[in-house]
Structure formats: structure tokens, C-alpha cells
Amino acid sequence: MAGQDKIIPIDTMIPMDTVIPVDAVSQEEAMQCWDEGAEEFAGRFKRNEEFFHRHIINPTLLNLLGDVKSKAVLDLACGEGHFSRKLAEQAKKDIQITGIDGSKTLIDIAQKKNEPFSHCIRFLVGDASRLDQLSSNSFDVVVCNMALMFIKRYEETIREVARVLKPQGLFVFSLLHPCFLTPGSGWILEDSPDQRKGKRIGWKTDNYYLRLVYHGVMTVCDTKETYYFCRTLEDYFRALREGGFVVEDLREPLPPKELMERHPNFKGEEKRSLILIMKCKRMG
Question: Are strands 226-229 and 275-282 parallel, antiparallel or unpaired?
Fold first, then answer.
């Protein structure tokens, strides 16, 4: 009917009926879900690198890290240890890596895979926001690969990263892009009888400032629910500044062009950024 707003079909990634207030979940609950989903998550790395890590995330992280030979590295929220092993391979095992994660099950899996690297990687169970078992000023580099958005106490975590880093040490982390993956966000589809097959014509971002928590199944697991904390970019920058960091570099990596041409699911990725990666230096 003339004058009426047309309903635009949206393929929503985070439906509003799956989000809860941040106070409704504790740090302990957010960690516990990773024990429950550990086997599913680890299954994504049976061949060492899950698809997105192999083609998009890890190459960018390695580029920002540069040469890590002879460095002391903390792999924070390391999961089943895939990136620790990747770093050890890159450094030809001339490196000392500590991997720490809140999930005992994930650390057990990491330790089972660690025999070839046992002289240069150790794994510990621990809360990223309370690194009591780690000494101050003891690491050259801290890496947090696709985990900070799953940690409730992110500000305390960043302060702990600053504490365990040596002065001028590097903190490099990746996360789902806070500006684009928000409650109610999703693909705007061309009107079609089958909405799921409609052409992607844009990306909708919504509810950016609400700072809600998504409780549901992310792509990192097949059936197990996790907690994804939706924050603003300003939230992360403020926490970094208050932790004594300066941002040296920032990347928003796209899938390689050949992948976008070969895989229909990547069509339209130029319309949004799914991943954000930052390189920060501890001052003082």
C-alpha cells in the first residue's frame, strides 16, 4: 500500500530474544560454558587450524607479532592450544610459551597435544582476569586470540595483561568486531520468496550501545551455548588506555579474494568487518 514502510528481510545473527543484561551472568558462568563446549570447540582444530583462523585471523596476528624467536609469550585464553603450537612452529621451538585458559577440559586437551612442544610450551588452568600464578613483568608478548569478547571481566583482564608484560611489551588480540556484531545485527536481504536465498545487499547494525550479552550457539561450537559480551569500541579503547597501553596498529581483515570468489557464503563480506585485531604496547 502506498505510503507504508516496506518490511526489509533481515537474516539476523543475534536475535533480540537471545540477549540478556550483563549483570545476569557471572564470570564463572561465562567460563563454565567453555568446559561444557570444550570437545565441540576442540573439534574445530583437529587439523590444527579452524577455517577462519587459518585464512583470516592467524595470518594477520602473525604479521602483527613479527619475529617471536627467543621471546616469552603468554597465550591468554588459549583454548586447546592451537595458536601456542602455531607460534612454536613459527619460532622453530626457540620460544617459551605459557598458555592459560579457564576451562580445565580445554587445558587437558591442549596438554594431550603438547608432547612435540613440551620443552617450549606449558599450559595452566586460570582465570584471565586473575593471573595470580604469573609473575609481574615476565612476558615480552601477550596474545589473546578471539577470546576477549567472551570474558566478562575484560577490564580486569587488560589490567592483568599490563601487569605481567614487561615495559614496552606487546599485547596483540583479536575479537569479533564490536561495531558490527551487535544484538539485532544481520544481513539485509533482497526481497525474495525464499528469504534465506535472497541476495545480500547490506549489513544492519543495531542496539550498539545497549551492552547486552548474547547467550546462544556461536560458530565456534555446533550445539553448545556460550556468552558473547557486546561492547562498544570505546569500551575497549578506554580499558586499554587505563591499563597503560597505546594502540600501535589495527586491522580489519577480509577473507582472501580467492576465497570470496570461490565460496558463496563470503559474498558481501566487503559490506562489513567481522574481525578486529589490535596491536598495543605497554608504556612505562
Answer: unpaired
**CA-CA distance, 25 to 36, in Å (whole number)?**
16
Task: For the chain, count helices (H), then strands (E).
Answer: 9, 13
Total-model pTM: 0.92
154-194 pLDDT, tens digit each: 999 999 999 999 999 999 999 999 999 999 999 888 876 66
CA–CA gap between residue 186 and residue 201 (Å, rounded)? 11
Label residues 221-241 b or e (16+ Cβ within 10 Å = b): beebebbbbbbeeebbeebbe
- The answer to whether residue 30 is domain-embedded is yes
Give the domain range for residue 262: 10-282
Distance (Å, whole) CA 241 – CA 207: 25
208: its cell numbers: 550498539
Query: What does 219-235 look like in DSSP terms, one character per residue?
Result: TT-SS--EEEE---HHH
CATH of residue 177: 3.40.50.150
Q: Identify the bridge partners of residue 31 per DSSP, sorted by sequence position.
A: none
Scanning the structure block, which residue is given the C-alpha cell 570461490?
A: 262
- Our count of domains for the chain comes to 1
In a domain, 41, yes or no: yes
* Cα 176–chain centre separation: 6
Residue 1 in any domain: the answer is no
C-alpha cell at 263: 565460496
Angle at 210 between CA 207 and CA 213, to 5 degrees: 100
259 to each of 11, 198, 256, 263, 264, how far by Cα in Å? 22, 21, 5, 6, 9
118: CB partners within 8 A, 6+ apart: none
> What is the H or E stretch that residue 246 is in?
strand 245-251
Amino acid identity, position 35: D
The answer to whether residue 226 sits within a structural domain is: yes
